[in-house]
Structures are given as C-alpha cells and as structure tokens.
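Propose amino acids for all 268 sites.
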C-alpha cells in the first residue's frame, strides 16, 4: 500500500509538471527548424490560431516519398484543451473537429479537464496510465519515457485507437493531444506520418516544430523536445519488434487494409 501511495503521489506530481508550460500568448521562438523539400505548408499555414491552447497545428501539408501530399483539415494536434476559450472551441467546431483523443493519464485529466468542441466525441486514450513510474521518470529521463511509449502496457492500444479513429471518422476531423502537445502527441504524429510515407527527416522537422510553437529554448525538456527522445522511441520500436513496420503490424495491430484505408483518406 505504501508503494502504491508513492506511485500515485509521483504520478500526480509529474502530471503537474507536465501540464505546465510557457504562458499562452508568449512570442514564438525566432526560427522554426530547417525545412525539408517535403514540407508543403509553411508554419503559419500549419498553425491553428487558438488563444488558450498551445502547439495547435494541422498534421497535413507534407509530401510523401511517393509524391503524394498529406491532406489538411482532417487531423489536428494540440496541447491540452483545458484552457481553450469559447472562441477557441468555436474555431475547432468551424474546423469540423468531431473526435478528440486525450492521451493523458487520469491525474492529468483530473488536474486539467478538457473543454471539448460542441458535438465532438471525447475519447480517453491513456498512453502511460498503466505504467505510472514511466511518467515519474519523465522528469529526469525523457528518453526512458519515450521508450515506455513502445513497451508500457496499454500504450500501443492507445496509439492504435487514435489511428483507427482517423480511419473511421468520415464526416469531420480528429484532434489528439496530451498535456504539452509535444511528447505523446509528438510520437503519435511521428507514427502517423511515417505510416503515411513521409520521410524521416521531415518527420523530425514536424516533431521539432514543438520548440517553435512552444517558444522553447535549447535544452528545455519541460517546454521543448530534442531528437534524442524521438530517436529513443524509434530505436525501441526496432528493439522490441525488429523493425518499425513490425511495430505497426504487431504492436499497433494495424492490418494492411487499415494502412491502405489510412492512406486513402489522408493522401491526395
């Protein structure tokens, strides 16, 4: 019982840290990461201008290795929606957000409950809640947390749920988020873009955009991201499953039909 109390306390404390970030409305960092030839949309075209929600952007506007382009207006990524203003919610409704996938743990959700656009389904897709010590480790070992996104019980199911929601949502858009919109959300985006056929360098670009949209300085693990963490997740997928493709099929349990349906919907 003592150990359980320590774990719960640690999870709550970590959730509090993760939920914190730069004040909404602070100026963006001076420069986004270096673009690649596969980047179609500019950072301003990609951004979703919300007053109370950080790191809000469209996942589309990238060219795949076979020359197609990821469609815009279908999938959005953000930080938590707990501080969304009424105007923000109206803006998301105007963008036809019909599904919200919340990747956060229970303590995070209790500390900062989402505000959801009218008519949108609010799904809980808790990535790390079954492994609370991985959340605690995030304060000192983010790479370990990224590895846990591959190995933690329930993590693969959570990511798989998001991808299936994207496939199944026929009339509207899907929005997924964690607390800061950079780590669990960042890995979700990396997985989605890689499955769609976007090259790794451009996947890295999309991941590092969190530093720009969150105004994070180099080395700021609370507000920003670094490629060391993303590399750790890709490496763990290879270690656990033998390849990223095996991770998608065996870990996330996406069939070839699922992948074809995802590409048919998301690529033009």
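Proposal:
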């Amino acid at each position: 019982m003592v150990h359980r109390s320590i774990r719960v306390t640690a999870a709550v404390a970590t959730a509090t840290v993760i939920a914190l970030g730069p004040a909404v409305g602070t100026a963006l960092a001076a420069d986004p990461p270096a673009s690649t030839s596969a980047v179609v949309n500019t950072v301003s075209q990609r951004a979703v201008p919300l007053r109370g929600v950080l790191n809000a952007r469209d996942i589309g506007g990238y060219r795949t290795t076979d020359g197609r382009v990821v469609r815009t207006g279908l999938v959005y990524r953000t930080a938590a929606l707990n501080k969304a203003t009424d105007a923000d919610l109206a803006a998301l409704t105007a963008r036809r957000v019909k599904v919200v996938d919340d990747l956060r743990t229970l303590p995070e959700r209790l500390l900062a409950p989402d505000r959801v656009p009218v008519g949108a389904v609010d799904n809980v897709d808790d990535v790390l809640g079954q492994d609370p010590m991985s959340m605690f480790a995030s304060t000192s070992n983010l790479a370990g947390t990224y590895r846990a996104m591959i190995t933690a019980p329930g993590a693969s199911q959570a990511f798989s749920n998001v991808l299936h929601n994207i496939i199944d949502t026929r009339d509207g858009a899907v929005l997924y988020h964690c607390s800061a919109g950079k780590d669990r959300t960042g890995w979700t985006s990396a997985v989605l873009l890689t499955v769609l056929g976007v090259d790794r360098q451009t996947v890295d670009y999309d991941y590092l955009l969190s530093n720009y949209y969150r105004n994070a300085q180099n080395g700021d693990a609370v507000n920003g991201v670094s490629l060391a963490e993303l590399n750790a997740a890709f490496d763990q997928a290879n270690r656990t499953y033998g390849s990223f493709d095996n991770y998608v099929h065996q870990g996330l349990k996406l069939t070839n039909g699922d992948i074809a349906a995802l590409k048919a919907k998301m690529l033009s």
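The chain has a mean pLDDT of 88. The radius of gyration is 17 Å.
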